[in-house]
Amino acid sequence: MDTLAVDLARFQFAFTVSFHIIFPAFTIGLASYLAVLEGLYLKTGNQQYLQLYKYWLKIFAVSFGMGVVSGIVLSYQFGTNWSVFSDKAGPVIGPLMGYEVFTAFFLEAGFLGVMLFGMGRVGKKLHFAATCIVAFGTFLSAFWILSVNSWMQTPAGYSINEAGQFIPEDWIAVIFNPSFPYRLVHMLLAAYLTTAFVVGAVGAFHLLKAKHNPLARIMFSMAMWMAAIVTPIQIFAGDMHGLNTLEHQPAKVAAMEGHYQTHSDGAPLILFGLPNDETKQVDYKVEIPHLGSLILTHTWDGEVKGLDAFPPDDHPPVMIVFWSFRIMVGVGFCMLAIGLWSLFLRTRDKLFEPTLFHRLCVLFGPAGFVAVLAGWITTEVGRQPFTIYGLLRTADSISPIDAAAVSVSLAAFVVVYFVVFGAGFFYLLRLMRKSPSRYEEGPDATLPDRNDTVAHASHSPLDSNQADS
């Protein structure tokens, strides 16, 4: 197979999946946030939570729709560009993808209508149940998709027939393969942090314009609690995920750490540098002796395998994996710093004062998306040169197509995606730029909730103490 066609097909899938993944990473967390807001409204009767629910519900609806559209394209590429992979892995991958549609997508699509247009038409508890079901549907979707991807990383529970197809023998082993629990936890926490920093950025943006805006205070406070609590948990989960990867995909870890040679008496932690595949070393590196072994093996002199322990044809692209991993980790520790800073300001009762901290939170609004994309690149490029790790190579997975055909479709994707999704991003930013109001209208503004109408008529201005609560 023409290597150029393989590279173009890989880039096309990478381009489309990069657009797609940012939407689930946002909607998974945002659906849970909406469930929390509506639950707090039902429990406390505080109209502010309801207005924030309506504010973010419109943003969720647009993001969810864009995620569905961008995800459909990926399925078609399995048939057009990766038909050999589909044929060989189809007996395993096909049912798992089908389960995602029959469970998660049906739940989301079925109850999203109630969630968007049912307020004022159905009871409050039923509407809250619809919101919770949609949030659960997003979790189920992540469950099945990550099970598919994890099986490709750490295949288990299969046999290979005479035609070279992977046949499931134990579905429990297939679904709950060795890396799946770690990837699921890591991705869900990433989604919650992504949403938290978007919500925090929007809240900070409106506090910079009006520091006494009660709705902006609530969303900003909730987002900072999430950043402060979840980020340390995510760092711990990431460490556990890394140890699992070291056990099952040591070549990927060697590329992530920039270790071309095996270190039998303690590996350093290379902070920065430029991997050089020709000289098999990292140029201009800044390293801390033995810290790599301490992190990876939890011992001072633990052995860490380098790329020299694996056949050269099995080495992943070191430069990409090395730097994408550092971007992900760097963004994660910046998130931790912001969460700790917010705790410090909260103890001094200055969380809502318009300072440099608010401007920094606005700047870090897209940080979660950057970290998710960098982590996804680390995972997928680090698996190369395999589609099914150690068993099926990428070059053997592609359809019998030539480079010209792939390049034409790739160019079409680039143009269409930037036009369509560029307009979608612009509209989302316009929605976020609008200041949240206590008279916020939901997606269906033609039939307001009767109870809300009465509440608005008797609603008095809220002071900052109520907002802080």
Summarize the structure.
The chain has 469 residues and is mainly alpha-helical. The chain contains 15 helices and 6 strands. It has a domain at 3-226 and 394-468.
3D architecture notes:
The chain is mostly helical. It has a domain at 3-226 and 394-468. Helices cover 69% and strands 6% of the residues. It has 15 helices and six strands. It has helices spanning 3-44, 47-80, 83-117, 124-153, 171-175, 180-209, 214-248, 250-257, 291-296, 318-347, 356-363, 367-383, 403-433, 450-457, 464-468, and strands at residues 158-160, 166-168, 269-276, 281-288, 386-388, 392-393. The chain has a two-stranded antiparallel sheet with strand order 1-2. Helix 1 (3-44) runs antiparallel to helix 12, helix 6 (180-209) packs antiparallel against helix 12 and helix 8 (250-257) crosses helix 10. The protein is globular and about 65 Å long. 41% of the residues are buried. Residues 446-469 have low confidence and may be disordered.
- Proportion of β residues? 5-15%
Give, in order, the helices and strands. Answer: HHHHEEHHHHEEHHHHEEHHH
What is the number of E strands? 6
User: What is the straight-line distance between the termini?
Assistant: 63 Å
Q: What does the oligomeric state look like here?
A: single chain
Rg, alpha carbons: 24 Å
Give the low-confidence spans.
446-469
Total count of helical runs of at least 4 residues? 15
- Main beta-sheet annotation: 2 strands, antiparallel
**Alpha-beta content class:** mainly alpha
What helical percentage do the residues reach? 55-70%
Q: What does the average pLDDT come to?
A: 87
What characteristic shape results from the CA principal axes?
A: globular
- Largest sheet strand order: 1-2
